[in-house]
Amino acid sequence: MPGSLENLIEALRCLPSVGPKSAQRMAYYLLQRERPGAQRLVDALTAALSRIRHCQRCNTFTEDECCERCSSAKRDPSLLCVVEMPVDLNMMEQTHAFNGLYYVLMGRLSPLDGIGPKELKLERLLERACDGAVKEVIMATNFTNEGEATAHYLSDLLHTRGIKVSRMARGLPVGGELEFTDAGTIAQAFYERRDY
Amino acid sequence: MSGRQRVDGQTAFILHSYAYSETSLIIDVFSRDFGRLPLLARGARRPRSAMRGVLQAFQPLELAWFGAGEVRTLARAEWLGGMPMLGGTALLLGYYLNELLMKLLPREDAHAALFNAYATTLQSLAQSRNGSVSATTHLRQFEKALLRELGYGMVLEREAVTGEAVLPDRLYHYLIERGPVLTAANHEVAGDQIQGQTIRGKTLLDLARDDYADPRTLSESKLLMRMLINHYLAGQALQSRRVFLELQEL
Question: Shortest CA distance to B27 belongs to which of B55, B8, B59?
C-alpha cells in the first residue's frame, strides 16, 4: 500500500468510533468516488482549524474573540447557565425559556477517565462567574453521576464566592406517564419530591 | 454454538462505562457470582433506549447476558432500586471504590463477600453526609475487605516477628506483607515524634476492631491503608484521588 494512503487511513482513525476497517473504507471512497468532496473536506478542516476558537466569555466555539450571544445586549447578564457541551446549549436555546448567558464546560468531571478540574479549566468558569454582573448560576449539567459530581463541586466553589447557585429540576418528563417511565427516574423523582 | 453461556438474574453494579461505536456502550460490571467483567450494551446510547436511565453506576441492577469470549452481550438490565443516587463527596468516594476494584480485582474472579461489602459501603455512603466519620469508617472497612479478598489480609493484633500480642501504648512499623514490628528505638508513645510509617499499637488494634472514634486512629489508619494500597497498585496512579485533591485546592 502506498505510504500516503496508509497515512490517510491512519489519520482517519482519530475520529470517534472509526476503527481500521471503517477508516480504510472511507479512504478508498474519498480517493475513488469523491475527490471533490475530499477537497472540500480539506478546505473546511483547514479553515475551521485556523478560525475556530473558544469564546473568551462562554468557552463555546466561535470565530470571534467573543461570540455573538455573549456580546448581545438583549441577553440578561445576571443569569449564567452552565452546560456540558455546545449541543446542550442548543437544546436550552430551543426552550425559549432562558434569556441569560451561558458557560460551556466542554466536558464534565470524570475521575475514572482522568478528567479533573485542571483538564476542564474550572478556574476560567470561576473567573467568569465572579465578573460582578452574574447574580445566579444555573447548573444544567447532565443528570449522570459525572454531571452531578460536576454540579456539586462547582456549586460548592461558587457558594464560597458568595454567588447564588440553582440546579435544573429532575423528574418525570412533560406529558410523562408513570406506567411508561423507567424505574430509576421515578425513584429519583420520588426521593426529590417537593411541597405542593 | 458450544461454549455459549447465558447468565440470568445476576445482581451487579456498573463500575464504569465507555462509549462503543455509534450507539453502544461497554460497561465494566461487578457481579455477585461472576466477579468483574465487561459487557457490551447494544444500542444503549440511542436517545430512546430503555436502558439509558438504568445503566448507571452506584445502583444495584439485575443483569442478564450471553455469549462467549471476552466481552459478552448484555441481554437485559433491571433496576433493583432501594439506593438513593450518591451526591457530593460521597460520589467522589464512590469513584474511589470503583477505581480500586477496577485496578486491583482481576477479571472473572467471583468475590461474593467483597460484593456484599461493596454494596453495604455504597448504601452507607448514600446515607452519610459529606465526609463524615461514618463514611471514613466504611471506606476503611471496605479497603480491609478488599485486601483480605485479594489474599493480602492484614495482620493487626500480633507482632510479625515474635508473634506477641500488639500492645496499645507501643510504637510499631508496618512491614508490607508481614505485619507490625516494634520500633527498636522507641518503646514508648512519644507524642509528636511519630513520623513516616510509625503506628501506635492502639491504632492497629482499633483498626482490627473497626473502631475509629479516636481521631489519631483515623489519621494513622488512613496513612497505613494508603501505603498498603499504593504497594498493591504497583505504580498505577489513582485518578480519583488526584481529582479529589485538585478539587480541594480550588
Answer: B55
Q: Which range of residues forms the domain containing residue A35?
A: 9-19+27-51
> Does one domain contain both A47 and A58?
no
CB pairs under 8 A between A and B: 82
List CB contacts (< 8 A) between A111 and chain B: 92, 95-96, 99, 239-240, 242-244
Encode pLDDT of B151-198 as tens digits. Answer: 888 889 988 888 889 999 998 888 888 888 888 644 444 443 334 568
Contact in structure between B87 and B135 (CB atoms under 8 Å): no
| Distance, CA of A98 to CA of B95 (rounded, Å) | 33
Overall residue count recorded for chain B in this entry: 250
A-side interface with B, Cβ within 8 Å?
Answer: 16-17, 109, 111-118, 122-123, 126, 144-145, 148-149, 152-153, 157, 182-185, 187-188, 191
pLDDT score, position B21: 80
Domains held by chain A: number:
2
Q: What is the pLDDT of residues B90-101, one digit of tens each?
A: 899 999 999 999
Give the range of the structural domain holding residue B63, as residue numbers without chain letter: 5-79
| Pair (A102, A67) in one structural domain | yes
Is-contact B193 B186, C-beta < 8 A? yes
Residue at which a domain ends, from B21, B56, B79:
B79
What is the ipTM, given to two decimal places? 0.80
| Entry pTM | 0.85
Closest CA to A58 of A113, A152, A135, A121: A121
Q: Are A149 and A109 in contact (CB under 8 A)?
A: yes
Q: What is the CATH number of the domain that holds B219?
A: 1.20.1440.120
How many domains does chain B fold into?
Answer: 2
**Chain A nearest C-alpha distance from B178 (Å):** 31
- What is the β-pairing status of strands A164-167 and A136-139? parallel
Q: Which residue of A has its CA nearest to B247?
A: A117
How confident is the model at residue B132, as a pLDDT?
62
| Window B:77-106, CB contacts with A under 8 Å | 78-79, 81, 84-88, 91-92, 94-96, 98-99, 102
> Taking a C-beta distance cutoff of 8 angstroms, is the pair A22, A65 a contact?
no
Give residue-wise pLDDT tens across range A76-108: 999 999 999 999 999 999 999 999 999 999 999
Q: What is the mean pLDDT of residues B110-116?
A: 94
Q: Which of B31, B50, B79 is the last residue of a domain?
A: B79
